[in-house]
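INTERNAL TRANSFER SHEET
From: sequence group
To: structure group
Subject: 3-oxoacyl-ACP synthase

Please process the attached sequence and return the structure record in the designated field. Keep the field labels unchanged so the import script can parse them.
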Amino acid sequence: MKNKVYIRSVGSVSAQKTYDNTSFLNKVVTYNETVTRVIDPNYKDFIPPAAARRMAKGIKMSTVSAKNALTEANTEESEVDAIIVGTGLGCIGDSEKFVSDIIDNNEQFLTPTRFIQSSHNTVAGQIALGMGCKGHNFTYVHSSISFESALLDAHMQLMNDEASTILTGGVDELVEHHVSTHRLIGHIKKDPVETMSILDSGSKGAIFSEGSHFFVVSNKKGENAYSELLGIRTFNSLERDEIEKEALSFLKEQEMTSDDIDLLILGYNGDVEFDTYYEALSQESFKNTPKAYFKHLSGEFDTASGFGFWLANKILKHGFVPQVVQLGDSSKEAPQTILIYNQYRGENHSLTLLKKC
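Return from structure group:
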């Protein structure tokens, strides 16, 4: 018999004040921008200043969110069997600076620090070094399903008793070259949009951002677990008319139907071209299911679904759906089962199913 998998704790650094685990969207920060940055915690509270100066932003964000998750789970660092991270861009800031240094210094007198920290697996490696964790250490770079890939790996290991406690998460940082490139190809909105009105923008592109979200996942429930992770499914490509069929098939594997879903969380980002995928799932079988969305709070980035996963767990833990994330007027109080659906520009679709413990 396969084990059950539980989300024991959460840790988040995002464009909202989520680094404080004692609150849950009590005060929402709004923006009128095309690009938003994370609200930085006081990194000195988590990282020695001398070490922080040498760290890329993605590493600092991940160190904070990972430490918060471990602290909340009351898990000793020695108890962590594996560290699994998903990232779309890794430490792209150091990659950019290293290449610039090559050009500026005519390929001479280069310091190794930025090169060492420029690889995608730097985050997982730095966390492991800080914890002294010598177990399974892996990084998934699968575009906008990078976080789901990491979570799926953790889920399978825990189900099959290959590990008992895993630290898993997703992280991406913003840098100017990345932003400039995506502006050029039209993936970022041309004009600033007030984040709370993003679904009414009627324009192409999204509001880009960054963030880090980590979770302690275990096959031991513990005392204060957030949820049970029932399943994850990803797809590289789907047509709009295939989404509902695949979602129902996914639920059927869990011996559930659309009527069993208390809340459907969707990754709307205000892109008029691709939000239609969420509308396609919102019809028919899920027409009467209460719905929520999250990218008006987190912004869009490769591992933004980590914020959606954080939101779902917080909702199950606290027993209510904040007004700021509700879609429409219907919202079931104290949801017991949540389905998350995310995609980016019509590709890399994911379905994640959670149940209250």
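Handover comment: The two ends are 19 Å apart (CA to CA). Residues 57-72 form the longest helix (16 residues).
Transfer complete.
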